[in-house]
Amino acid sequence: MSRYILKRIFHMIPVMFGVSLIIFTLMFFIPGDPARQILGDKATEASISELRAELGLDKPFVVQYVNYIEGVLTGDFGISYTTKQPVSAELFARFPTTLLFAIISILVACIIGIPLGIISATRQYSFIDNISTTLTLLGMSIPSFWLGLMLMLLFSLHLGWFPATGFYGPKYWVLPSVTIGVTSAAFITRMTRSSMLEVIRQDYIRTARSKGQTEFKIITKHALKNAMIPVVTTIGLIFGASLGGQIITEQVFSIPGLGKLMIDAISQRNYPVVEGGVLLIAFSFTVINLLVDLIYAYIDPRIKSQFVIEKKKKESTALKGM
Amino acid sequence: MKIVEKTTKLALNFNTKKTGQGYDVWMRFKKNRLALVGMFIVGLLLLMAVLAPVVAPYKFDLQDLLSTSQKPSLKHLFGTDNLGRDIFSRIVYGSRISLFVGFVAAAIGTLVGGALGSIAGYYGDKIDTIIMRAIDIMMAIPAMVLAIAICAALGPGLLNTMIAVGISTVPRYARVVRGAVLTVKEQEFIEASRACGGNDFHIILKHITPNCLAPIIVQASLGVADAILAAASMSFIGLGIQPPVPEWGAMLSAGRGYIRDNPHMVLFPGLAIMMTIYGLNLLGDGLRDALDPKLKR
Amino acid sequence: MKKHIKKIVMILLTMFIFTSCSSGVKASNVANDENTADATNVSKKATRDTIVVALPKEPPTLDPHNEQSTVARTVEKVVYDRLVERTNGEIKPMLAKSWEILDDLTIRFHLRDDVYFHNGEKMTAEDVRYTIERAESMPASAYFFSSFDGKGTKVVDEYTIDIKLHNAFAPALNYLASSRGNIVCKKAVEEMGADAYGRAPIGTGPLKFSKWVSGDRIELVQNEAYWGNQTAYKKLVFRTIIDASSRAVELETGGIDISLDISPEDMGRLSENPDTRIVEGPGYAMNYFMINSLNFDTLADVKVREALAMALNTKQIVDAVFKGTARASDSVYPNTVDGYTQIGPMEYNPEKAKKMLVEAGWDFDTVLDIASASDEKALMDICEIAQNMWAEIGVKSKITSYETATLMDQQIAGKTLLSIAPDNPATGDPDHAVMSWYQAGLGLQDSQPIWDLIKEGRATYDKTARAAVYAKLQKLLWDSHGTIPVADLNVLYGTRSDIENMDVDPGKIPNLAYITISQQ
Predict the structure, then answer these.
(1) How many independent structural domains does chain C possess?
(2) Chain C contact for B257, CB < 8 A?
(3) What is the full per-residue pLDDT of chain A (322 aa) written as tens digits?
(4) Domain A92-259 is of which CATH architecture?
(5) What SS3 class is residue C495?
(6) In order of start, what are the domains of chain B with their CATH numbers?
(7) Where are the alpha helices (DSSP H) in chain A?
(8) What SS3 state is found at A266?
(9) Above 0.85 for ipTM, yes or no?
(10) Domain limits for position C165
(11) Which of residues 141-200 of A touch B (CB under 8 A)?
(12) Is C270 within the bounds of a domain?
């Protein structure tokens, strides 16, 4: 098991290199001059080329990339072009907020999504199922800025229950996490429903039924456990994605998270922040994936046994079929 | 098991059996009322897109600065926007753009992702490791950031938006397809086909792909919906399709400042997106149920 | 299964705890913020000694010579003082008690002797000299202060300074009154380094910097040792709220006291609401189309440009886009800028415009490229309407929207034929208002007469004579149709009803030290 974890961590190295190369290349080819952005539209050509040289932007691609990687390896992610602060400080000022926001929203989503999915699956094509299908589809297609603004109008302006913007404490967390939670819950409900449906049709469920166990017991004891794997995958994916920042929701509720920072950085051509941010997000995403795989092992002993086989079979990478 | 018998038969004389299988699928699909509703909605949308000039009472870019931000009325069914354009006509024309963007982006994702996924799944070993590592890399970059960066690099415009959104969804398709291929690959009928002398290309295309269709179709039907939403989000940030082209997402974000006094400006484009996604999802679910004989009721 | 769920929950909980304590500093910070945020909310209702202001963007830094952002300047305005101050178009004393123009290249300032920086240092002539030298050399402010001679500027005695100019420069006082003229503390800048200084600035203003939470807010507190009038409140908090609708909601709920950027859509509601009010006044900002005839021949014919201008119903555009918060341009710069003379507005006559095009031999198959800024809704709207109005006289066009970053690049690189340009000459000086003519992106094939007049305007100190020069320049620019002026924008602020004396600065950089709170 621990060897498996080590191996996975080892696999993260090439992934992180790849991520850095892709984002560095993209940033290199984006039109728009960061020096011009920093100095403004009326700055002289001379001062702009001077600044380009200072930032090392006049060097060839390979040199710039190698310099960047050298910096990263020594823990130096560069200096933000706009704020002139170390990128690492900028990112770590925002990351806890994003992580907290992601965790709360995913909890909200699970609390709504999993039970709803189970109920729909057990009562397939019933009234409840159709309502829940419609609701989840609605949830998936409601633009988050619309939902966020509506919640804000109702609960802060008219009822005065929650503050409208900011992220300073539990009272402030409610509206944004519900906004995100509703959308994510839709995905989780769908996944739970379809995976439950598949499991319920399996022979062993039929066997359990024929043995005369109660429906509740069948669902919770036999079906749920086997249906959880794709659901956990979905939760992991949604959680990982929300670590990239919920750009629009962050904007509506003015939450100082990573998403807004990244988008601003792209539009201001603030390369060090974009690159550092993507690396951080990618890193946490891969860590979450690893955690999800470990959770599998707890849920499904069959997969756990694969870890053991893994040790013997060298090249079996067919671990996750998702 | 049934599926194996059936597909083994199929593998041996697939030419004659093909129509029979399609008929089966249709019979199963027909029974699912919600799926029919989905098909109806998508069909209606396609029809609306094709017949846009006939259906729309006004031109989509016809401005009337003297009657801006009007509430819905008989003259303007869905009201007018802040430049006095008829929202109904814009939504009708917008169906062309949104559906086009959605389908093309999903097609890019399906083709590229599907090809990568099936190659990785079928060949396994080193090729699988390399492809999946590349997919891991793409997956680790947040899709929205990737799409925005690609869009910023390529410049704005319809085509670039589709490419950006399409590429950012490749990893999802690749993983789904790979997973499906892995489960199909080990089954007897593949062995049988190989024993009958089928080459890899033939096997992937004729045997593996049809048996992986269910997850691909489900993913693609969701993917079209996702792509429409992603394009809308890009428009929200100001990248994406150029005005005065009436893309629904762009209409939605253009109207967001008016949401409190003139909610119709965001309501109708929002509803249009919602209906489309609803329809596509119902259709996708229906197709999945119909394509997967295991789920027969 | 239950056991497994428990484990999953445990993992999630551990992660949760991990986040809250990920770094001890951060955790305590969050807790603190929570307390202070709640505390300010509560105390605000009781005594109102905290004023919360919403900014539409976060300032990158508060170093006046190292940024390009209007929002940063609003914060800087109360943290720093300047030698002189411009109110209602008049130059008034601030850190300088008086000044005299010794010759064309020298202005002597007599400074106050009772001014201290927030770190306790006394403000002297050396700080002023250092500021001028720095403003001239730091790249972000250099172009703006290029007429100032930092090296030549001499300290006469502790409280007297001779500011030198490279060339006769009439706008000097207006420029010194702008944010680039904020007097920085030499000792602090040198000790802290420019980058750190920008995030924890030290000035002489009525409020001093206290705290910056990245992406969220900046807090200032009253400077009890201030030389001038004390502010009517103890604490000023700037919160970054990007979304315009959210700012409006926060203002209505009372979460903020002032919003520095109100979109026209929210105006009606905010002025009807008894708890909030709209403060509006004429501004320096303007929107116009830039035409580049240096790199493109398409619009080289002045008759064609005139026809394009004539085909635009600017009154209608302004009403539709700005809902009464702007005027149709009637000169090349707004009436708030010094030396303004009314020339227009341009006659709207599509038939005549079409005839002029035909006479000029315009090829009606040409498709004009209009470059626009995708992140500015008003600019996009203007372009879309213009596209439609030009279509009515048979001129085809295509809009390409860029992010502001790219648009700026394209304009300066001279790659845009026709582009929308927002401009805010925040000093109110006409030299600043015609600054865009210094660059490519805008340009005529024969612009020597324009250069001559710009130069003359800079060198003319006498107010009436200067106004005469700019009257000539405005006429010349207007008739050359090198730009198509569209709208002169008002400044709009939203405040709670009990906020009074809101400074309606035309440059969108209000001095928040003046506001008072009425005891209803």
Answers:
(1) 2
(2) yes
(3) 678 788 888 888 888 889 999 888 888 888 777 887 777 766 777 778 888 888 888 888 888 888 888 888 888 888 888 888 899 988 988 899 999 999 999 999 999 999 998 888 888 778 888 888 888 877 877 777 778 888 888 898 888 899 988 888 888 999 999 998 988 898 898 888 888 887 877 777 777 777 777 777 777 777 777 788 788 888 888 888 888 767 788 888 988 888 888 888 887 788 889 899 999 988 888 888 888 888 877 776 665 565 555 444 433 333 333 3
(4) Orthogonal Bundle (1.10)
(5) strand
(6) 52-60+79-295 (1.10.3720.10)
(7) 2-29, 34-39, 45-55, 61-73, 87-122, 127-141, 144-152, 170-200, 203-210, 215-217, 224-243, 247-252, 258-267, 271-299, 301-312
(8) helix
(9) no
(10) 81-186
(11) 141-143, 145-146, 149, 153, 194, 197-198
(12) no
C24 domain-assigned: no
| B274 contacts A138? CB cut-off 8 A | yes
Reference A166, options A255, A269, A38; nearest CA is: A255
Which residues in chain B have Cβ-Cβ distances shorter than 8 Å to A320?
179
**Are B207 and B216 spatial neighbours (Cβ–Cβ below 8 Å)?**
no
Q: Which helix (H) or strand (E) holds C291?
A: strand C276-291
Query: Comparing C-alpha atoms, which of B36, B188, B167 is closest to residue B110?
Result: B167
Nearest partner of A278 among A22, A39, A3, judged by Cα:
A22
CATH number at residue C116: 3.90.76.10
- CB-nearest partner of C60 from A82, A95, A97: A82
Nearest to C19 among A103, A153, A169 (CB): A103
Rounded to whole angstroms, the Cα distance separating C288 from C286 reads 7
Chain B residues with CB-CB distance to A285 below 8 A: 139-140, 142
| Coil/strand/helix, residue A10 | helix
